[in-house]
Specification:
Length: 366
């Protein structure tokens, strides 16, 4: 089987509240359920990705902040297992001071990349949740990533922000990271019946179509389908420290993210000579065995309880605990692999009506 390099994607949008963290968490969780090894990196000082998965960076031990500031910190000590095949590099509010503290550090834009290289071979997919800014933390993400994914709403002002972001990616690709590309746009909180949304989506489609063959970083970018329909369950899940698949597995938001993740995996593996229809059976078997062994060890290490206590509801663990106990305290949920080519109750894909757009500047149609 051909060696498939890890797909490393930075989820970026300068505007907050567009579904960036929600998309990073749920796409990552869906990919992990497919048997791929996933690492989520929380680079936002608000630590919303960490909290979404029930991890409190203030009490968990080492975080991504330690990797930036402490040369002796080990990335293996900061990574926390939160689900089967799903690890997280948590954040903390202290990360907000990192930019100032690293102002005089040489090669400060490559700190995260150097640390990640120590565990690069351990993961198939790496998703980075970036802060809503273009400072030092985001630059570290762009120097590590191979592509940029832009979660956004189908609104006119969002398109103007996308234009600025694309120009930033172009500058980075001309200097700090020549391999950086734009993978595409994820439409979040999407209103399928809105005329304005349909016009914006059509204009985005045409913009990317006109960029094909241009040699620009977004020459192969596209609007990723399906769009994520507006769904209150997606907003409720973080309050329980759960992914949408833990909280409401078959709600519209879960169906959309699952289908999007399957296509995200299939596209990458086919590009590297792997037939996703075989579902990489050897890796899935290995992953299943690993999960079974982890669950067996966790069961053996659990003190005996009375019959009335043997069945308890798992809750996210936010209290302090020694590093050695973090894996046991993190809920490991074993999920049956989902065949990547199986039919889904996915929403009908959006049409791409022809609306005009300038090749290098996205504008609203008149």
């Amino acid at each position: 089987m051909p060696k498939v390099p890890p797909r490393i994607a930075a989820f970026i949008n300068q505007k907050g509240g567009v579904g960036k963290t929600t998309s990073t968490v749920n796409i990552g969780a869906a990919i992990a359920s497919l048997g791929r090894r996933v690492l989520l990196i929380d680079l936002d000082p608000q630590a919303h990705l960490s909290l979404h998965l029930g991890v409190d960076g203030a009490s968990i031990g080492q975080t991504v902040y330690d990797l930036f500031l402490d040369p002796d910190a080990r990335i293996e000590d900061a990574i926390v297992k939160v689900r089967a095949n799903l690890d997280i590099l948590p954040s903390t509010v202290d990360l907000a001071a990192a930019e100032m503290e690293l102002a005089n550090t040489a090669d400060r834009n490559f700190l995260l990349k150097r640390r990640f290289d120590e565990v690069r071979d351990q993961y198939d997919f790496v998703l980075i949740d970036c802060p809503p800014s273009l400072g030092l933390l985001t630059l570290n993400a762009l120097c590590l990533a191979g592509e940029v994914i832009v979660p956004m709403q189908a609104h006119f002002l969002a398109m103007q922000g996308l234009s600025k972001l694309l120009e930033t990616v172009k500058l980075i690709s001309q200097g700090l990271n020549p391999a950086l590309k734009v993978g595409g746009v994820v439409l979040c909180m999407h209103e399928t019946q809105s005329t304005h949304s349909k016009e914006v989506v059509a204009e985005l489609d045409q913009f990317f179509e006109e960029s094909v063959g241009s040699g620009l970083p977004w020459a192969n970018a596209k609007v990723l389908r399906p769009a994520i329909r507006r769904n209150i369950k997606l907003a409720e899940a973080p309050s329980f420290g759960q992914t949408i698949f833990d909280y409401a597995e078959w709600c519209p938001g879960a169906i959309d993210y699952r289908t999007l993740a399957e296509r995200f995996v299939r596209e990458w593996e086919r590009a590297h000579g792997v037939d996703s229809g075989t579902f990489r059976a050897a890796q899935v078997a290995e992953s299943t065995t690993m999960v079974a062994e982890e669950n067996a060890r966790a069961t053996e290490s659990t003190p005996s309880a009375s019959p009335a206590q043997t069945v308890t509801e798992q809750k996210p663990v936010l209290s302090k605990a020694p590093k050695a106990e973090r894996a046991a305290k993190s809920a490991v949920v074993e999920s049956a692999p989902i065949p990547i080519d199986s039919p889904r109750s996915a929403p009908q894909e959006l049409s791409s009506a022809t609306l005009s757009a300038e090749p290098k500047q996205i504008r609203r149609s008149s």
